[in-house]
Amino acid sequence: MTSADTFQDYLKEPGHLTFDQMAAIHQEIVEEVGQDEEALEFYGYLVVAAAKYANTRALWCTMDKMEKMEKDSGRTSGHDSVITNLNMLARFLKTQGKPALWRDRLGDETDRYGRKALGDFACYLAFVCGINAR
């Protein structure tokens, strides 16, 4: 294992999202999705992508340099999938008259720190879905 970081360490990083910010964004998403079957389907795709990506990212600190090199393209692909699914959900909700303002607050994927924040939010989603599946 290469490090044993805490959430407090994460909060020192540039472009971080606080737990409260992620919770508020998630609440907005859940409220906008509501009981709309199509929106729930898009949300489900997002959760699957987030869980897969979060698994890879969580195990990253246990990998040596060679393992990271082998898995890096898969991790990037998983990250891209999360971003694609966030964008698809936001676009769909906008077509339904929802503001989807949360998408802008999550960050711009073309910005280094915005991209990181999007991955951070994926980990938050995986966490919330995981603890609610008890």
Which sheet architecture does the biggest sheet show?
Answer: none
How many β-strands, per DSSP?
0
Q: How far is the N terminus from the C terminus? A: 28 Å
Structural class: mainly alpha
Instruction: Give the uncertain stretches in residue-range form.
Output: none
* Range of strand content: under 5%
Rg, Å, rounded? 15 Å
- The residue fraction in helices comes out at over 70%
Mean pLDDT reading: 95
SSE pattern: HHHHHH
What is the count of helical runs? 6
Question: How would you characterize this protein structure?
Answer:
By secondary structure, the protein is mainly α. It is 75% helix and 0% strand. It is built from six helices and no strands. The longest helix is centred in the middle third of the chain and has 31 residues, at 65-95. The radius of gyration is 15 Å and the shape is globular. The mean pLDDT is 95.
